Amino acid sequence: MALNPDLLPRLRSIVGPENVLTSKEDLIPYSFDGTAALHQMPGCIVFARNTNDVREVLLLGNETQTPIVTRGSGTGLSGGSVPAQGCIVLCTVKMHEILEVDRANLTMLVEPGVTTLAIADAATAVGLFYPPDPGSMKISTIGGNVAENSGGLRGLKYGITRNYVMGLEVVLPDGEILWTGNKCVKDVAGYSLRDLFVGSEGTLGVITKVLLRLIPKPAAKKTMVATFNAMDHAAQCVSDIIAAQIIPCTLEFLDRTTIHCVEDFAKVGLPLDCEALLLMETDGHPAVVSEEAAKMEEIARKNGALEVRVAKDDAEANKLATARRSAFSALARLAPTTILEDATVPRSELARMIRFVDAVAKKYKLRIGTFGHMGDGNLHPTFLTDERNKEEMKRVHQAFEEIFEEAIRLGGTITGEHGIGLAKKDFLPKFAGDAQMRVMRELRRALDPKGILNPGKMFD
Question: Which of 216, 240, 261 lies at the terminal end of a domain, its last residue?
Fold first, then answer.
């Protein structure tokens, strides 16, 4: 279904002609997000400048039953911001103001188009800390982070985006503006509507302001890299670190394929003669950091670490962290299509899950690199393929089906931080069950009875 051209003059009157894009050349960059092999041309692009713009666009969409897909930077990895056919893509990147940094209450109020890195930098500038750090933090926006409930490398110790959202301004599909939450650390009045919108993937409302929780900046940190000749040894090292009651800030892993790709791409001096690499970081009080780092090094060596390298300064630590963040980009250089997924299992099952992924790749004759957050059981099997090869893509989908089924069987989940979107909605009923699916559908119908917001995402 094409966009009704009669809507264009009305949209231009709301946001200004310069904020409505309609030419094919302008639409193409907004026809896909960071998810491979998913694309659909929208009807038009509308850049909102403020909450009232969002409200007026939603009023128009609701009146005419025109689908609206909200979009930030388009870095999502589950197809959450892939347009519906002929829809209005409502882009919030021009709503990029940091409205307030409140040091007394340890909060920051921002618009949805502010990048995650800008938020982290603004917090650092006043001696505070915003922990969530998705791999795309340089360009991902906070509105998208909240909508997808994004994770990151520091999730093991500090949690995910949900843990730092104290309040939200949301425009509902009928144009009503809702504020939920406040600066109070304790507030148990009524339903937690704030949590309802976090992770809702743009299906319940459009986020226009976010009140974030900040914390004091850790006084010290220490970063280390340990290498192993077997992934099982690395996994056991992680289990032993947690058993020793150490919760590192970062506990990441790369497999052999990913290590070689990252080193070729980033050239940071990663060791290449190993099967698994652990990136470990502890932060906090200097005395605690020193003690935990020494203990983690000891545990790594007891588990057969080939080498344990301690970053000598912040520059080297940042270089190592950047190497891990570049894993997706490094792997993407090897094939025309890179499909990065995420599945999470209990930490105790991680080594078994990694072996299962390798077996599935061999079974379907596919090339794969695996990396992720070993400390919280979240792994990212990344298939290197070519979406033009229909037969190979069929095998890729069969492989992912087996991987998600195994994750569920092991007591895990089909997504730890990327969301459902289009890519995983077929797997959601098996994971969630009938009662949970019914409640989610009823909530969606109650808030968006005409079904205009992000149609086809999460479930039909």
Answer: 216
> Distance between CA atoms of 202 and 38, rounded to whole angstroms?
18
Average confidence (pLDDT) over 134-156: 95
The domain that holds 236 is classified in CATH as 3.30.70.3450
Whether 451 maps to a domain, the answer reads no
**Whether residue 103 sits in one domain with residue 71:** no
CATH number of the domain that 405 lies in? Answer: 3.30.70.2740
In a shared domain, residues 64 and 112: no
Specify if 459 maps to a domain.
no
Residue 440 covered by a domain = no
Give per-residue pLDDT as tens, 360-417.
999 999 999 999 999 999 999 999 999 999 999 999 999 999 999 999 999 999 999 9
pLDDT at 2: 86
Q: Where are the beta strands (DSSP E) in 285-360?
A: 307-310, 337-340, 343-344
Give the residue among 226, 316, 224 at the shortest CA–CA distance from 266. Answer: 316
Q: Do 391 and 325 touch, CB atoms closer than 8 A?
A: no
Distance of CA 358 to the CA centre of its chain: 24
Task: Give the closest residue to 254 by CA, choosing from 312, 331, 314, 307.
Answer: 331
Return phi, psi of residue 346, to 5°.
Answer: -55, 145
Alpha-carbon span 380 to 214, nearest angstrom: 28
Asked whether residue 453 is domain-assigned, the answer is no
Are residue 229 and residue 201 in the same domain, yes or no? no
Range of the domain at 356: 335-432
Does 118 share its domain with 204?
A: yes
**180-200 per-position pLDDT tens digit:** 999 999 999 999 999 999 999
Q: Are 304 and 275 in contact (CB under 8 A)?
A: no
How much is the pLDDT for 85?
Answer: 93
Give the domain-ending residue among 181, 216, 251: 216
Sort strands 250-255 and 165-171 into parallel, antiparallel or unpaired.
unpaired
Give the integer Cα–Cα distance in Å for 388 and 92. 32
pLDDT single digits (tens) 232-271:
899 899 989 999 999 999 999 999 999 999 999 888 888 8
Residues 6+ apart with CB under 8 A from 369: 255, 257, 258, 261, 327, 331, 382, 384
pLDDT of residue 434: 96
